[in-house]
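Ligand-bound model needed. zinc ion.
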Amino acid sequence: MENKCLNCGITSEDVVLLSCQYKGEALYVCVKCLPILIHGSH
Ligand SMILES: [Zn+2]
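Prediction:
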């Protein structure tokens, strides 16, 4: 199974993905979107 960034959908083929958890679910976020999540733009 391919891991994708939860925000932009990019895969680990193209960018570094970081694993994280939200509400008990394993999610992945890329290094580009991580700052967006940290700053809570949505
Ligand atoms: Zn992303």
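The pocket of zinc ion is lined by residues 5, 7-8, 10, 30, 32-33 (CB under 6 Å).
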